[in-house]
Amino acid sequence: MNISDLFTDPAYLLYGITMCLFIPFLLFSVIASVRVNTVFNKYNHIQSSSGISAQGYVRKFLDGEGLTNIKFAAVRGSLTDNFNPTNNTISLSDTVRNSSAIGAIGVACHEAGHAVQHARKYFFSSARLALVPVVNIASSLMWPVFIIGYILGFASPYTSIGRILLIAGLVVMGLTLLFSLVTLPTEFDASRRAYKYLKTCMTPQEAAGVKKVLRAAAMTYVASFMVTALQFLRILALLLMGSKKDN
What we know:
about 250 residues, three-stranded mixed sheet
């Protein structure tokens, strides 16, 4: 590749842009990850004036939505909280479940927001759930082959085998990108539902703290989408570069 190609050929230009943006996007991802932990830790040391535990807030939230069938489970770790739609269970971590801190309440009610989405058949939540097995199967089948091909030198965009591998990689990355894309509105909506509820039963200062925790968490999903999109464009650029070589 000549330097002049970066300015005259769209494929090389796209590849150059993805390489230039890789470090900034990666740094943004790291900063978002560090920030969500920092903000959570800050507000997880500020107790709610009500004294009600995070699980207690979630139970009231769900009862108000008519979702009395949701179960609770414990999960180890920090910020490992999740909602499992297959068995209608909200798993709350050790740092969240019995805590009455603002940060813990915000995280727990966010997961309750996912439970409400599932019950109301929220489009993006349903779409993400449908994509999970597809993305998992595609990734488990493709990436070992792609890595082996790369190690053995078959992944060059200028060889037939390399282009086949890159096309397969593009499909897998495309599915991952689609999953990441539908995840964004799903996560933002879950936070919106949580904040809307908590505004009615918290002081304005406490609700503002919850909002900061939820916003910091949302940025990690934005960062994930950006990095995935960049990887997709990089593979696309490599394929276009290989096709240019044939011509």
